[in-house]
Amino acid sequence: MNSIENHHPDKQNTPDYTIPLTRKQHQELHCIKVKDTPLFRKFQQYQMLVKLGVSQKNWCTAYQKEYNVSPSQFVNIKELNKEKRLFSKQLEQLIKYELPMNFKIRGLSTISIAGILAYAHPSRFPSQRKFLFYCGYTQASRKMRTKKGALRYNPSLKPILFNACMSLIKQKNPKYYPMYLKIKIDLRVKYPEVKSTHYIAINRLATLLLKEIYQTFKNGADKNDM
């Protein structure tokens, strides 16, 4: 019974009417469950390589500090980086035919867009609101974070979008970099006591980026249907 959840078929017109569903059924109905696709599996492999690289780097640093000797005979970080580059090319091939013709965002890496499509492909969501909700970038999904056992968004997207936005800022994307600076300035003027203006600006930037991605894919799909 712990896995039974109440689904609202028409929350706007009949908010009190619900249907009991298992958690798995409820997730599938709301597109919450991640689709097991070749892109998703390949991206998960890439993520494991990244985690392995971080672990190796931390271990090498600790070893060097403890014994003052390089542990290069035990770990080959160059080979790992070579493998990561190979996975990056494979991901690029997987998303090549999924991207709309007009999709181009300067500074957005192949890894970032592959991660977004792997976990939350826009084609899975009937509306932009549900897409943003699933990614964790609506007020409703943010409230869900504080409710134990009521998770309705995918937390795996948060670090992917953070890295994507940092890349846009570092590459000084002509659209998003000025937006980032303006958001930070506005926050400092309006809330001078707030210290974390950078992270708030990143979250807002991520929301705008997701909206552009969804609209671009939606428009591309509409053109294909014509």
What does this entry look like structurally?
By secondary structure, the chain is mainly α. It has two domains: 1-30, no CATH class; 31-215, no CATH class. 62% of the residues lie in helices and 4% in strands. It contains nine helices and two strands; from the N terminus they run E-E-H-H-H-H-H-H-H-H-H. The protein has helices spanning 23-29, 38-67, 77-96, 110-119, 128-135, 139-144, 157-170, 176-190, 197-225, and strands at residues 4-7, 19-22. Helix 8 (176-190) crosses helix 9. The chain is globular.
Count of distinct strands? 2
Considering DSSP H and I runs of 4 or more, what fraction of the residues is helical? 55-70%
Can you tell me the overall shape? globular
Helix/strand-derived category reads mainly alpha
Poorly predicted ranges (pLDDT <50, ≥5 residues)? 145-150
- Taking all Cα atoms into account, the compactness measure Rg is 21 Å
Distance between the termini: 46 Å
**Helix segment tally:** 9
Instruction: Give the total of domains.
Output: 2
What is the strand content?
under 5%
Strand order of the largest sheet: 1-2
User: Could you describe the largest sheet, including whether it forms a barrel?
Assistant: 2 strands, antiparallel
Helix/strand order, N-terminal first = EEHHHHHHHHH
Mean pLDDT: 84
